[in-house]
Amino acid sequence: MESAAIQGGVAPRIRAAVDGLPPYSAGRSVRDAAADGGEVRELLGLAANEGPYGPFPSAIAAAQGQLERANLYPESGFRSLRVALATRLGVDVESVAVGAGGIGLIHHLSVALLDEGDNIVLCTPTFHAYALDARKQGATAFSAPVRADGSYDLGAMLALIDDRTRIVYVCNPNNPTGAIVHREELLEFVGSVPEEVTIVVDEAYFEYARFASYPDTILDPAFRRRNLVTLRTFSKAYGLAGLRVAYLVGSKDIVAAVQKVQSNYEVSSVAQSAALASLGDDVELARRVRLNSEGREELRSGLSRLGFEPYESHANFVYVRVGDARAFAKSLEAEGVIVRPGNAMGDPYSVRITVGTPAQVKATVAALERVASAQHTG
């Protein structure tokens, strides 16, 4: 039976800010390749920065226990998880919001803080959800290029702030480059931003950044400012990307505004229980961070041997300039590895490669060698 398209009548009116907006561009997955006829068993999906080890065993057990009560709505306001996070981080529970992934909280901040005609300030390339969600509200994104090492150029960002700026984003470590802004420069920047402008420090890859001068903007009292918000997630190091749960720490004013615009039940009971169970397993977290660090350096070393110049990364991925990013990614997929071209994030010349398991890293380096060899002989 053929499907019938809906025709006739007057087209519905779509808000101008949304009508011309491109949809969010997610990293290509193994499922996408399968839909295009690819052989899933032969592909490594290293485009989305997913944790390669799955949920913690304690999180799996907790999530399975919640399935028996899936007929009930989740806890209103997500208070149990918020209390656990507040206790762990040494802040008031009123300073913690929980949402459906970091991208969900970014959306809520945009709805709560941006009016039509406002603007946000960021650097490029970076996580493109910041600009997309601003545009949904009729706001504009002002951008400065990242510095040569891939980190945010805070001085250039300060020069872009005007009287309609409502949010400045600092992605630290930066997605997709993996570079970091150090404590002292971030602290100076925070002190220079007007108090009425909200500073959002996105620390989605916080657990992987073990550099001495990398700032902890939650535990460090110097960063406790009314206009500073920190975002973190359970999607990466904790292996819960498919369950969609992240958190925000900031002033009670901002947290209250986020809670007003978010759905009361947007984080499922399964996700909350898995996140709660994950918080108590520091040994497993440390093991994953160590494996990631080892794999990251092996991947960077392999790229360097092949003549590439990968960025120094403090996250669970490596970013490298390759020329035509989409063409390179297509060639690498033909060799069994799916990576992320930087086009959607503002850089059509580089690709981002997630660090997988030790075996996946070796397979990735071998695939890179085959692509580089083909390019050389071609």
Question: Would you mind describing this structure in some detail?
Answer:
By secondary structure, the chain is α/β, with parallel strands linked by helices. It folds into two domains: 25-54 and 283-377, Aspartate Aminotransferase, domain 1, CATH 3.90.1150.10; 57-278, Aspartate Aminotransferase, domain 2. It contains 13 helices and twelve strands. Helix 5 packs parallel to helix 6 (129-136), helix 5 (101-113) packs across helix 9 and helix 11 (282-305) packs parallel to helix 13. The longest helix has 24 residues, at 282-305.
Task: Write a concise synopsis of the structure shown.
By secondary structure, the protein is an alpha/beta fold.
Features:
13 helices; globular; Aspartate Aminotransferase, domain 1; 378 residues; 2 domains; 12 strands; 3-stranded antiparallel β-sheet; 7-stranded mixed β-sheet; alpha/beta; Aspartate Aminotransferase, domain 2
| Strand proportion | 5-15%
Q: What's the CATH superfamily of the largest domain, by name?
A: Type I PLP-dependent aspartate aminotransferase-like (Major domain)
Distance between the termini: 48 Å
Rg is: 21 Å
User: Number of DSSP helices?
Assistant: 13
Which class of secondary structure composition applies to the elements? alpha/beta
Beta strand count = 12
Query: For the report, how would you describe the main beta sheet?
Result: 7 strands, mixed
Assigned CATH architecture of the largest domain: 3-Layer(aba) Sandwich
In the residues, how many domains can be counted? 2
Mean pLDDT value: 92
Oligomer: single chain
Helix/strand order: HHEHHEHEHEHEHEEEHHHEHEEEH
Q: In percent, how helical is the residue content? A: 25-40%
Low-confidence stretches: none
Shape: globular
At the fold tier of CATH, the topology name of the largest domain is Aspartate Aminotransferase, domain 2
Strand arrangement, major sheet: 2-8-7-6-5-3-4
The CATH C-level class name of the largest domain: Alpha Beta
